[in-house]
């Protein structure tokens, strides 16, 4: 018997496929990141050593707390002028860099860093067998070259000047051609300069290269001590010149009272040594007239009493006296 219930047929219309997910976005982001890293590497390969040191300093200390080249928050190493106030930060940074170098961990006692009135002094001390230089030679070994290259990277981005000194001990240098301790100390200092300038120092950053031979011993009580043979790097303090006055500022004019005082004549002091002259005579009559030996005295003219003496109210002429005398005798 057939069912009386109607048959219901459900039809589903085929639509667009479901969501594919976001895996492709992750792959695309990785691709873009890899391309950016490639372009950065290509850019760094064509930049100067100074820029590479700045980028390396940022990745070593992104927070900018070490005050290292490229790690300062100002973004420019030219502003990191080392003075007596902040040079201790550079000392600490160099000591940390030396401790990180595996090859130099055993040589930490041979590297002395001190703060002096002249600047930051970094000394590379030699041992009996030679630490940074071959014995009796100005050629740097691997340890000396590696340390100087690291120091050049640390100091190349600061504006401070650097002087390099070479020292020897008091033991005479045996040589047949006259090569002695003076030449050896100067050659070692110059060898250190060449390595550092090729590794990050500016060409004009080294101000002096000095060789002292055995004149400045580190251990004066023991002139032949191996530590007297050393290379000294001095990071000099940056001297700041006083600011010049602005060009548009003119000097202040003098006050009116000051100008009036300058115009007043200075009263002359009375000459106490001059004798007082009697009344009726000229002021210069009492002063003696000086004569030179070369100029003869002027010839004196014959004097005439009547014409030489002029009558005045207090002193009558001689002719008037004679006439008065004649009148009195007539009477």
How would you describe this protein?
The protein is of the alpha+beta class and 331 residues long. Among the domains are: 26-80, no CATH class; 81-236, 60s Ribosomal Protein L30, Chain: A (2-Layer Sandwich). Helix content is 32%, strand content 10%. It contains eight helices and five strands, in the order αααββαβαββααα. Strands 1-2-5-3-4 form a five-stranded mixed beta sheet. Helix 5 links the parallel strand 3 (162-167) and strand 4 (206-213). The longest helix is centred in the N-terminal third of the chain and has 23 residues, at 23-45. The model is unreliable at 66-79, 273-277, 279-299 and 301-310 (pLDDT under 50).
Short note summarizing the structure:
The chain is an alpha+beta fold. The protein contains 8 helices and 5 strands.
CATH class of the domain at 81-236: Alpha Beta
CATH architecture of the domain at 81-236: 2-Layer Sandwich
Number of helices: 8
Structural class: alpha+beta
Low-confidence stretches: 66-79, 273-277, 279-299, 301-310
- Quaternary state reads single chain
Strand order of the largest sheet: 1-2-5-3-4
